[in-house]
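quick one: D-malate bound model?
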Amino acid sequence: MSESAKLSFKGQEYEFPVITGTENESAIDIAKLRASSGLITLDPGYKNTGATTSAITFLDGEEGILRYRGYRIEDLAEKSTFLEVSYLLIYGELPTQAQYENFSKEITHHTLVHEDIKKILEGFPSNAHPMGVLSSLICSLTAFYPDSLNPVRNKEEVDMSIVRLIAKMPTFAAWAYKNEMGHPVNYPDNALDYCSNFLKMMFALPAEKYDVDPVVSAALDKLLILHADHEQNCSTSTVRIVGSSQASIYASISAGINALWGPLHGGANQSVIEMLEAIKADGGDAKKYLDKAKDKNDPFRLMGFGHRVYKNFDPRAKIIKKAADDVLEKLGVNDPVLDIAKELEQAALNDQYFIDRQLYPNVDFYSGIIYRALGIPTDMFTVMFALGRLPGWIAQWKEMRENGEPIGRPRQVYTGENERDYVSINKR
Ligand code: MLT
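yep, here:
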């Protein structure tokens, strides 16, 4: 027997179906709420509102659970690769050996970008933030692949667009960094794996041999897996709502990159390092800043602690913490900023004030530390987040399109002026 929920309003009673997902989450289906009662719901930030049903990612904020297509993030981070996880998220199943080899070959074959895109890149000043460069270059693909502009009519083109996005994102990301450094760009090296190719495009310099450190490449691959999807977060919801208008996948992903840019979302890992550098510049006294964070009259807040969804711990943070410790040890990194991070981490994990407020180190805290240890500059951290989140955005966009979901068009409660007559300027 299906469940239902009743609402009583102004002496009337209304009944709405309740749907239950495969992990026993329940939701009131209010599709007929306004037509039957004249009411709408109000939920700024949509924290209590489901925008869709989805079979891609399940997370449980109370239990600290994160699964991609039913597979535990802990298992995928330990045993899989980013490209295999990308295939899983997008197509719903782990690939067979033949499927993986074909997917990997397709992506490798499309890492190069049209030479005219270099002219777009050259138009950016070197102080352009890499996220603005990245979203622009991704959106420029609509010009070079005009058949992508109608995703509803052209499914084959969508599949090709998916390959191009995954193949070219590392190239664009590395080029955005080279633009910032004022260095010539590097072309992809298709003899290398996904992460090694990216690192070489990032850090290789003309006339110098560049060997990718396997420790760094493996840590990066794990980081990208951990960031690959996270159900209906801000940037994924942006990708879905732009795609719901039947805009191209390139335009939708470009919008997602811009949403991720914000310091409250993907920019948090950049803000973590900026906070640590500010503490170092102020003498490096971590305890002083821990006390400031506790002082309700002090505007200082710790960046990289707690999470709007996870109430006890972020499962990704536990995995990334170990990777951070491994990378720092293997690379022999000795960085005072990272020492400050360790002090803040120990305090947050042991101080009752932070424990009571679930202010534990989150994925952004540790990813900022690892990216810094890998030599990636701070304003490239959110670009790294976008590189990881790309397959999740693609999977969510594809699911929305294949389910034929309607255009996103939320309602509002109007709180402005009531009707009034126009008064000419000489009478005001
Ligand atoms: C994410 O992975 O997108 C972030 O943790 C933010 C979120 O899920 O709201």
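The domain at 4-65 is CATH 2.20.28.60 (Rubrerythrin, domain 2).
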